[in-house]
Amino acid sequence: MALDLANLASVRAFATAFLSSEPRLDILIHNAGISSCGRTREALNLLLRVNHIGPFLLTHLLLPCLKACAPSRVVVVASAAHCRGRLDFKRLDRPVVGWRQELRAYADTKLANVLFARELANQLEGTGITCYAAHPGPVNSELFLRHVPGWLRPLLRPLAWLVLRAPRGGAQTPLYCALQEGIEPLSGRYFANCHVEEVPPAARDDRAAHRLWEASKRLAGLGPGEDAEPDEDSQSEDSGAPSSLSTTHPEEPTVSQPYPSPQSSPDLSKMTHRIQAKVEPETQLS
What we know:
By secondary structure, the chain is α/β, with parallel strands linked by helices. The chain has helices at 8-21, 46-68, 99-123, 142-145, 153-163, 167-170, 172-179, 206-220, 232-237, 267-270, and strands at residues 27-30, 72-77, 129-135, 190-192, 195-197.
C-alpha cells in the first residue's frame, strides 16, 4: 500500500484504504524515517514532516481501529539523538538547508518522537491503547550511508559492519515494545536495549509535549473533530486515576519479567506472528 509520509494527502489516502480493507489493527509501529532532505528543496521542514508530522497524522486517522481492537499498541521508533534535540516552536516548520542544519533537525525530530509518545499516552489513558518510544540502537542501514559521498562509502561500509548492529538486532527493542506482556504501566516511556531508560528534562517536559501536540495538529491539518480524545466512558472510569506519566517518577513501575538484552532475546523474532499485517515495508531504522 503506497504511503508517502511527506505528503499529507497520501497519508489520508493510505488511512482510508487501510480502514476500508483491514478489519484489525493491533500494533502500529512508526519505523519509516529520513536523516537528510537529500536534493529535495521544500518550503517546509521535510525532516519534521516525514519523521513526525506524517506519523502523527497517520496515528490520529487510525485511532478508531486501534481503539476497536484494544488492547493495542503504538510504537514510535526514536533515537538517542533526541538528547541533542531542541524544539523552537517559532521555527518548527522552517526549511532545512545544509548538512549541519540537517543533523540538528534530525535530533529535533527524534525529540519530537519521544514527546509525541509521551503526550499520546496521556491523551489515550484509559482507552486500552499504550504507546512507547523505542531506540533501536546504532543500526547498519542506509539511513545515513546513502547520503555519504560515493567515494567515501567503500571506506565506511566495512567500519559500519564492525561497529553497528544488524537490522535484526536493531528491531529487538521496537519488537519488545510491541509484544512484551506486562509493560502497559510504562506507557509513554522511552525504551532502549529492551528496557526503559530515563530521558533528559527536555524529553519529559509535559508542557512542551502538549505544545508540540497542538502545533502538530495545526501542521497536519487536523480539524477539531479529529483529536485523540478518549471515549467518555473510559474517561469517566479513570477520572480519579493518576496519570502514569509525570515530569518526575518517584516510583517507577516495574515489569514482572527481567528485561532481556537484544543479544539474549531471540524469542522476540518468534513472536512476530502476533502482528496482523499484509505488507512489510522496506523501511530503515533510525
